[in-house]
Write a structure and sequence with these properties.
single chain; 33 residues; mainly alpha; 67% helix; 0% strand; Transposase Tn5-like N-terminal domain-containing protein
Amino acid sequence: MWAQRHFGAVQLGDVRRTRRVYRLAAGWARQPG
């Protein structure tokens, strides 16, 4: 997944927050506008 490659090193202290970053980044990649 693109988001995990780019944001995989993110350490937010909570697995749920890290997953949320992946979902947000993936959404931005699908619809950049």
